Amino acid sequence: MNSGALSTETALAVSNVSHAFGARKALDGVSFGIGAGDFTVLLGLNGAGKTTLFALVTGLYHSRDGSISVYGADLKSHYLKALARIGAVFQQSTLDLDLTVEQNMFYHAALHGIARSVAAPRITAELERLGLADRRKDKARNLSGGQRRRVELARALIHEPTLLLLDEPTVGLDIESRQFLLDHVRKLCAERGMAVLWATHLIDEADDNSKVVVLHKGKVLAAGSASEVIAGAGEATLRGAFDKLVGSAPAGKGKPQ
Amino acid sequence: MRAAQYYRAFMGILQREALRWMGQRSRFVSALVRPLVWLGIFAAGFRFTLGLSIIEPYDTYIPYEVYIAPGLVAMIQLFNGMQSSLSMVYDREMGSMKTLMISPFPRWFLLLSKLMAGVAVSVVQVYMFLAIALAWDVSPPPLGYLEMLPALILSGLMLGALGLVLSSFIKQLENFAGVMNFVIFPMFFASSALNPLWRVKESSLWLYRIYSANPFTHAVELIRYAMYGQFNGLATGVVAGFLAVFMIAAVWGYDPGRGLIAKRGGPPE
């Protein structure tokens, strides 16, 4: 579509979003943006509100306050247009374990209105890239945790999304699988100009080229490039900056650490 | 989204339902055995205590097995509707429901597709049951098998939509036993599936009113009449009405803005 000015295009704009479950406020006035081609790490401890934010951005439910738009399409008024551009890997696996890898992929393709003849080569290509070509006919149940994650990533790419969302994708994976996933997604950013929002509580998953959003107890404490966040906190490393930001945030009744 | 894309999405949902159905042999077998137990054991015990006079739509005296066959057909559909709602709750707990919910189609379309896929499965089960029921002399006119198809689709949609509504209100899988006790059993027993309405009316007017208000009664009668090539206007109207009500409630329940998903406590953080 629009080939020019990709780098300045806003892939995801979250503005002033708040959400509460009963009395518990999960998100409080959250605002940040992601540009096309950005690898953005959403950094936060458990309970920071990352999963709630993902549910809102994928339209599982709507926020009460504020607005979210994907490539200019508002999630409330242009819901379907926004969803068509999103690929998502949730924290909890969403594979149908009783179906084979291939059946899961075709099901996803159908749910995006893609014909089997169009989906088949894409499925082959994505599975090959992720080293899963030989597991194609296996039931999802028989795959390891790392393999399931890779299938989910491959599946999220079939409809060629331009915004990829991953919620704690490396949880429970060994070091090797974790690095593989991280490298692969970084490559997607660089090669396809895809915008990525990568939620994690592992600080070392952000490198110097990453954008960083620090989320703590439902509030954004800092956002920008890694170096900006580090400089803003007056620290030398991202870990130092994160600890300082989180440590100086007003203490709630959340978990310690 | 164009029509072809809607069609592909529907076929994808249908295919998944069929794959899951064929993969779960126990579910498949129990769905067939359950009505056959009723037909072979329960009905045999009652055939002498329950003299049936000639009632519509039958044109002769009929054995009890023949009387309860349409009720058992509706029971297959009731169980199927509840089964698919169970699988929706399961999917939600397991996360695979998200795959459906984040696809770029309107929620009502996704729910309706899911519903129709479930009905397609239940219709196949019904015809398999009727083939076996021939051994008990349950033999409606040959054309009846064809004429009951629209009735089966309508009643299947209504009972499936009820399942969808329940699935949007049920918080967790454990609560599903309650559905058995408070939905399936009362609906089945307080209907014309096992007792003709005129007999109920003879024994208690109050019970008769409950039976008549039960949507399942109308699903049974819709199927019973259609099976013998007759059209029951009242039953058709009531079943269609309840279908509309349940469908609206289900779409409301799954609406991302208003529904119950957002209010349900959120992620366990």
> The biggest beta sheet of chain A, please?
6 strands, mixed
Structural class of chain A: alpha/beta
Summarize the main sheet of chain B.
none
Using the CA coordinates, give the radius of gyration of chain B: 19 Å
* Strand order across the largest sheet of chain A: 6-7-8-3-9-10
Envelope shape of chain A: globular
Low-pLDDT ranges of chain A:
1-7, 252-257
> Residue ranges of chain B: pLDDT <50 for 5 or more in a row?
none
Count of helical regions of chain A: 8
- Could you tell me the radius of gyration of chain A in angstroms? 18 Å
Description of the structure:
The complex is a heterodimer of chains A (257) and B (269). Chain A contains eight helices and ten strands. With 257 residues, chain A is α/β, with parallel strands linked by helices. Chain A has a domain at 10-38 and 57-85. Helix content of chain A is 34%, strand content 25%. In chain B, 74% of the residues lie in helices and 0% in strands. Chain B has helices spanning 3-23, 25-46, 64-94, 97-101, 107-133, 142-169, 176-189, 197-203, 205-213, 215-227, 233-253. In chain B, α6 (142-169) packs antiparallel against α10 (215-227) and α10 crosses α11.
Layout of helices and strands, plus pairs?
The complex is a heterodimer of chains A (257) and B (269).
Chain A: E1 10-21, E2 24-35, E3 39-43, H1 50-57, E4 65-70, E5 73-74, H2 79-84, E6 86-89, H3 101-110, H4 116-129, H5 145-157, E7 163-167, H6 175-192, E8 195-200, E9 211-216, E10 219-225, H7 226-233, H8 238-248
Parallel strand pairs in A: 3-8, 3-9, 6-7, 7-8
Antiparallel strand pairs in A: 1-2, 1-4, 4-5, 9-10
Chain B: H1 3-23, H2 25-46, H3 64-94, H4 97-101, H5 107-133, H6 142-169, H7 176-189, H8 197-203, H9 205-213, H10 215-227, H11 233-253
Helix pairs in contact in B: 1-5, 2-3, 2-5, 3-5, 3-6, 3-7, 3-10, 5-6, 6-10, 6-11, 8-9, 10-11
